[in-house]
Amino acid sequence: MIQHIEISDLNLRTKIKNAEICFGGNRKLKIYGILKCSSGKRMKRENRVFFSSEKEAKESGFRPCGHCMKTEYLNWKNGLI
Question: Which residues in the chain belong to E strands, given as ranges?
């Protein structure tokens, strides 16, 4: 997990371009989603974290976003995950 406030914008763009970062999350709400999610783009920089994989996000205790990851969210909500 990489916190947005601990990484420079240039380094962040490089990691996204090289597919080292694939998901973003809200550290306070414990929600993760895809990087293009409009809900994720609205969060404060100090609350934003990044993950290299969905597995890493789940292992950190985050749940899927109900906006950009509807199927995964419904599976989580219904206890299928």
Answer: 2-3, 23-26, 31-34, 48-51, 63-64
The DSSP H or E segment spanning 76 is helix 70-77
Instruction: Using alpha carbons only, give the angle 29, 34, 38 rounded to the nearest 5 degrees.
Output: 75
- 40, 65 Cβ separation under 8 angstroms: yes
CB atoms within 10 A of CB 68: 19
- CA–CA separation, 48 and 70 (whole Å): 20
What the block records as the tokens of 24 is 């973003």
pLDDT in tens, 13-56: 999 999 999 999 999 999 999 999 998 889 999 999 999 999 99
